Amino acid sequence: MNKDVLIVVDVQYDFVPVSDEYFEKGLGGALAVSGGNEIVPVINELLSKFELVIFTKDWHPIEMEAFASSHPDKKPFDSYINSQGVEDILWPDHCIRETIGAELHHGIQFENIKGDFYIFKKGMTKDFHPYGGFNGTGLGDFLRERKIENTYIVGLALDYCVKDTALESVEEDFNTVVIEDGTAAISEDLNELYKIFKENNIPLIESFEIDEYRMNIIKKAKIYAHNKHTSDDYHTRYHLQITTDYAIKFIHLIPEEDRDDVIAGCWCHDLIEDVKLTYNDVKNNTSKIVAEYAYALTNEKGRNRKERGNAKYYNEMKAYRHASFIKLCDRLANTNYSKFHSDKIFEMYKNEYIDFKMKLFDGRWKEMWVELENLNNN
Ligand SMILES: [Zn+2]
What we know:
By secondary structure, the chain is of the alpha/beta class. Helices cover 44% and strands 12% of the residues. The radius of gyration is 26 Å and the shape is elongated. Zinc ion (ZN) is lined by residues 58, 60, 94-95, 123, 129.
């Protein structure tokens, strides 16, 4: 859970509807998104579930290229070519720094946040009007420094700043989820937007689904692996369980912060190679790291075992985090099982042992190699 961040995009007074009186005084509502106020209680509920929360703020100078007021011949929502040479939309003046319109909504209950929160400001120079919270803010590096892997995004507006924040989050390599009832959109027709989210593997969930969605990665991986192995008694009953039991036995060899991912990786280790799921299937149903483990343990095609288990396969496995640990758990499980169920396969593993060790040996897992040797010998 401490790998997760909630990103609250631009929940500022200029982006929510305010009374006519306030609007006329310039106290918000300049670029109001219909339904913008209604997301505040949803966000408040979510705040209590995250140890790290990021708020982004549009924080503009009074003169801004993206404001229609800077172009005497144009009006709001006309298009123009911006300083980056890209066609963009001209907006009414909004979120001018130090004004009420640029303030975060006072309904936001900061006291709900268990851990830390930070505010990232964007669009602070005249000739650059980014939509996404990662654009020019250093947010990506900030989250990586804190070992964040998963971003959950809410805020305003779904079809502009939330959309770009989500796409940038994917680009920055975070598992990215948008919580739809924590957002409101400017456009009424969102079909094109949903298509873009789909193409970029960004799930849209509802806030009531969040606990299930953030379910402990081990539980999630186990359920997923079992569901995908249903027709295969050997795997569901024995192989995955024994592989994972070995991982638990030797888990002290893995740095603490990686242990859950490794055990989850054990549950899912053969989903690409044996069940023929794709990398994205595994990623979307578990996490990127689990999918990387399953991918690292996916063998190339070859005519025989020896060809498939080539040096490249093992070198790539050794290169990815603790994938060789999972492979060793898999081998321990297979050796153990075959020893008591199939002399022929047990002999095969025994015969392969020297070659297998030569290709995969990694000093970190010495204890496990001893265990495998004992299995082979006794
Ligand atoms: Zn803006």
